[in-house]
Amino acid sequence: MFSTLSARLFALIAAIALLGLGGLAWVEVKSHTRHLEDETIRGALRLSDTIRRSTRSSMLKNQKDDVYDIIQNVAAQPGIERIRLFKKDGRILYSSLTDEKGIFLDIHAEACVNCHTGKQPPENTDGCRERTRIITAPDGHRVLGLITPVYNEPTCTGATCHATVESEPVLGVLDVQLSLKYIDDSLILQNRNFLLFTYLFMLGIALTGGLFVWRFVHIPVRALIRGTEQLSRGNLDHRLNMQSDTEMGRLATGFNQMAGELELARQQLTDWARTLEQRVEEKTNILKQAQVKLIQNEKMASLGTLSAAVAHEINNPLSGVLTYTRLLRKLLNRDVPPPERIPDMRKYLEVIADEITRCGKIVSNLLEFSRQSNMRVAPTNINTIVERTLFLIGHKLELQNIQLQRNLHTALPEITCDADQIQQALLALLINAIEAMPNGGILTIATQPETVSQEEGIILTLSDTGYGISMSHIPRVFEPFFTTKQDQKGVGLGLSLVYGIVKRHGGRINVQSEEGQGTTFKITLPRQTKIAENDTANFPVFEGASA
After folding, report:
1. 32 has a pLDDT exceeding 90
2. Is residue 86 within 8 Å of 103, Cβ to Cβ?
3. What's this model's pTM, rounded to 2 decimal places?
């Protein structure tokens, strides 16, 4: 229970009240008791002095009966235990209690020990406390004893009551004993009443402090704690109903303002997130369109690179077709062709048909490659894609005196992919390899099953003996717009698109190269590629140099 602020404040107030008022009550009781005792002692002193003065004349005249009558009459007053008159040697000359007369009192008794602690009793006992002692009566109540010395005065010389010895300053002692029972009972009653009042006052302070702490500390603090818990649970519309100018009221006002600002900020973040999602979707669509255009433009750039070689390759069969067509026309200009030339004419027609079919196949492949289409995945043999791509680039290899080495595995598993994009990636790598060997060289392309990972797939390797790539450029070869080609032969998008296509199919591509020795690209494609059939080429343009 003392873990709460209100409980600790209440305990502090109760402890301060208990210690403060308890200490004050103790001091007050002690002071009051001392004051009553002092007043009683002063009264006893006056009484003793009155008895001494009243009996002085009778003592000087040695009128003992008058002295005894005065003492007896005074002792009969309420509150006086007894009055005794001692000689110096300790013998009781007179006592209000008749059975004590003539008795010698022991100096070690409780009534005498204060004055006779040393060898000689004190000659001067003018101090109030020095002349008094408090003893306990047989029935248990306290008794105040007051000693009044009877000094040897000059007037005592020649008195008939005793033999005067000038060397003895004290002739005897008047002992007056007053009962303190009435004072003790009064003190007990007054102290009880005072302590009761003190306890009630302490209880009132504790209750008042407790109610104050409960009203102005506990309730507001609990409300703040519940409000904070509500905010932590996301309930930002929670508000505190505390309207005051106190610190707690200002704290509640600040809490409400903070909750309002948090709610507004969350609403703004929600709106901003909603707007951001829309903007991201818009930018994503724009990026997809840009990527589609980029792929198509890269296709057109590849077609531009192949156009001269393809035109030359188509020109050869068309020249043969033209030649054989002229021969046939010459033979058909006669009314009847010679019978011996009919087999030749049939041969010419077969050649013309073959060359036209070859031209149509070249044009068909070029048109299919240049066509813009959506993402289409289907089971495909990678060797088929390789052969189709090599057919498009075959004449360019012959023009640049590049030897082609095929190492195609005959039992490859089919992979699920977009054949058009894989062909475009392979064509981009082939064109780069051809451009790296302007004076001829060896181009090696190989396929094999992938056996390292648990999933089946294929590995496509493309190697050339061209210029190679420096070690400082290898980490950047797949970055967009990074190129080492001179004379503006490239804009640096081919390899980044290759990388994006491979990653889009869930594959990996890495490059190994040594400057002046050649370059090798290794592509690993999984057997199953999870791509939506109608999804356009939405792939990252760059993620690193190898994957």
Report:
1. no
2. no
3. 0.41
